[in-house]
Fold this protein.
Amino acid sequence: MAERSEIELLRLVEEALRMAEADRAMWLAEQDLDDGTRARVRQLLVARAEGSPDETRIMPAPKLPAFPKAGERIGSYELIRPLEAGGMGVVFLGRRADDAYEQQVAIKLILPVHLVADPEFRRQLIGRFEAERNILARLNHPNVARILDGGSTADGIPYLVMEFVDGVSLINYCANHNLETRARLELFAKVCDGVQEAHRNLIVHRDLKPDNVLVGADGEPRLLDFGIAKILEREAPDADRGSTALTAMTPAYASPEQVRNETLTTSSDVYSLGVVLYQLLAGVRPYELGGLRPSEAEHMVCETVPEPMRKALERAAIPDPERRARRAELRSDVERIVAKAMHKESSRRYRSAQELADDIRRYLDGQPVLAHPDSSLYRTSKFLRRNRVASGIAALALVSILGATVFAFQQAARAQRAAQDMEQVNQFLVDVLAASDPFESGGEITLAQAVDQAADKIDERFSGRPELSAPIRGALGYSMVSRYQLESAEPLLLQSLAEHRRAFGEADLRTFRIREAIAQLRQEQSDFAAAEAEYIALIADMESSGLHSTPLFGMVLSNLGNLYLASGDYAKADTGLRRAQEWERETGLTRPPEDALAMMSNLAQVAHELGDLKRADELYSEALQRATALRPEGSLETSTLLSNRAYLLNDLSQPEAAMEHWQKASAMREMMLRGDHPMRLTVIVQLARQSQYLDRPDYGLQQAELAVAMAERMGEAQHANLVYALALRASLLSSLGDFTESEASMQRAEHELAIGEGRSAGMAGVVELLRARICREAPPPPAQACPGKTD
């Protein structure tokens, strides 16, 4: 965005913040802005509403201090033109104006809007600005931009005068000069020297990225922007915790501990330096976080190992000759230097920026480097920990393999044979996990992918040994059901069941566990009759075998109740789920909190469907209390509970409370899901519908517009929601008296309904009802639009 546009953007944000939050959306819609500018203003306003570290709380009707303009004088300096603008301030190009000597400078000023915040916030912000001045004053190094002066304008706006670096960002400088790998490494080592100067003064930069390193015409890099830096000697051990959020740093360059809001040390800057070096050499960043939800971004940074730079070069937007030359220059020692700097565990990184620079120079001098790959044992253990969230079921499958095989070994007649069996299975597991080694495979695969590949090797490794192959095959099949790979899971589970019966017998707990997995498979295949029959048979067989007090028995009871709920047989679902609860009380076995919450939510849904509204409300209320205690920051499960209870509240004739629940659910899903998502779209449509019911057409129209736009972007998968949102939009426009736009929106809804695949009779009925409502409100419409009426 051009400089003038950036300044204008900040002016708009200031103006919006001076009005009530409820009025901002309408005001913004009325402004004559292009879509990009409007979206950026909205993004900044949302970021502030979500509580970013720079959140400004404006007092009513503030009088803003006069902000200096180009051509005006501040102290001994004249402002020439804006250079850049950010959330906290604006940086101007300036020059010495007292004729003492010629000098160009960079002058940074706080935006006036921040100075009319509440007193506590204003104190904190000016404190941060003063801290930056103090930080820069401590640094004296050729690779760090120097502070020259500072003070406040006549209207009280603080400013800093800094050395002006007439240069370009580190990445652009290397690209513009077509630097080879060796020259890039030499230049980067100087950047490390500048960071080391900060660390020597106990300062952590916390926002190292290519744009904060400018390279001047003299070829020297200079480190900029210590706006969120911290002086370590002033911090208590945990003072840094939570002080930087994703909005106060650049997530793509942030260390795992910074993303998790943990206490930071200089090691965090070393990690960021590693990311910058990766991008400098590979032409792309190790992680692309655009469009990811915060939780996904955190998982990417904290858990995912980036692909080797030689492989990442394939994605770089550079000419093929340069790509080939760069790939040839990326030796294994360089890969290892970057990997050590970017290690997920801070204790395994370089101890300082100086140590990183020394290793780079050691490589350039042809000497052995300190960096070396982790051991195979370390990588294997980290692989399992790294994937426990994304592939937890698969990890449990491998654990199940070990547990089952250990039991089998204990039953072996000969200790030597048992040892051989253990070695055979161990080697199988080692081979499965070997695919996770990026140094060997050229890229990382997930644990789930490794498990899938392992299924093809079972017969080859364990032919004629059902006591070994059965639990392995069953665990892999169970994993596939959990990941909805049903076609692949079925033959594995059926073969595993046959092997279990042959190796362990019909009444063995391990055999029952495979039968439970097959019942789940049938349910996922929508073969409810087969799943019901298997669950009922399992319950009877386990009771007759004396296994009715095992956790597996409780799981089967719950699964049968959930099956009835999924199939719409609410009376049986209520009986089944209550029986599962009674079993828990009798045995004294408690479920994990998440499972207990799911049980309560399902019972509430069943009670609602059966018309027991009081009991449903009591269950939903308790479930929401438990969900909030488990996840105070909110979760998708909590948002679903809010939405489900909103439907119930409507049936309890509490539409205002229902609206509040849907609004909370919508805000929670927006926070968790960021961007377009079916779960966000569904609740936005409900807000539009509820607004119509409460006769709030203005708010309802805003929600309907959001829903139409999101459904259009999401395509065919959300066609039904597009039809519904268009029809709601038409009805709300009619309520506001805009009959022309209303008719256009309704005609489009009817057109989309007609052309949609698998036309829904239910949706057709909804559209007809909304058309009838419009016909009652609008002037005499065309006869074909409203049958029974004429002009």
User: Anything to note?
Assistant: The first helix runs from residue 3 to 17. The chain has a mean pLDDT of 75. Residues 512 and 538 are 7 Å apart (CA to CA).
